[in-house]
Amino acid sequence: NAGVTQTPKFQVLKTGQSMTLQCAQDMNHNSMYWYRQDPGMGLRLIYYSASEGTTDKGEVPNGYNVSRLNKREFSLRLESAAPSQTSVYFCASSEVANRGSGQPQHFGDGTRLSIL
Amino acid sequence: QKEVEQDPGPLSVPEGAIVSLNCTYSNSAFQYFMWYRQYSRKGPELLMYTYSSGNKEDGRFTAQVDKSSKYISLFIRDSQPSDSATYLCAMEAQKLVFGQGTRLTINP
Question: Which residue of A52, B33, B35, B91 has the fewest CB atoms within a 10 Å radius of its CB?
């Protein structure tokens, strides 16, 4: 029972390089999310996809792009990585979008990204 | 001012102690309240879920919501070393908002 799977688990990039973080869920959830987690800052929403075919900006979208490839997969792309993007990135999913629905989110185990 | 405030700790207690973790919030529209547990190098996992005010108990864990004071708590009874983790509160009105997380260590 995999739940939410993220790849890769670790990555080191040089400034200016590009990278795509992959996320897949097997719970048939409609909504998916990308967060970053930094010490003292908690979880901050980067982008989310309420349903297949839609994406919306979260709290900290600058420097990132996303693609909802199909119902299962939601990828996060860094076009030109910067040291400020060093963080732990989490993907999450929920049955429906958190717009007053009270749906809990289910998280993957994260991608640890360092940008030198 | 952040919508959700949570003391980051760290909090260190002996095994068997009662632990109290707390969050305050400013948005009176929050209706759904959750606690997540996050082990080191893992993603957050849902621990407790409460709708509106009141208490909910699950084994050694009790979640309390006091909407009049805009204050939620998680109590852990008979704490175990396996409870050592970071605990995040989360609450939702039109979006899910997380607290910073409290790092808890239970010492054998």
Answer: A52
**N-terminal to C-terminal alpha carbon distance within chain B:** 37
How many angstroms separate the first and last alpha carbons of chain A? Answer: 35
- Please check the confidence at residue A1 and state whether its pLDDT lies above 70: no
pLDDT digits (tens, 9 = 90+) for A81-101: 999 999 999 999 999 887 778
Determine the residue among B96, B97, B100, B103 to mutate to test chain A binding: the one whose Cβ has the most chain A Cβ atoms within 10 Å.
Answer: B96
Contacts 24+ apart (CB under 8 A), A1-4: A1/A26, A2/A26, A3/A27, A3/A106, A3/A108, A4/A91, A4/A92, A4/A93, A4/A106, A4/A107, A4/A108, A4/B43
Residue of chain B whose Cα is closest to the Cα of A89: B43
Q: Cβ contact (<8 Å) for A98 and B95?
A: yes
- Give the distance from residue B77's alpha carbon to the nearest chain A alpha carbon, in angstroms: 24
DSSP state of A36: E
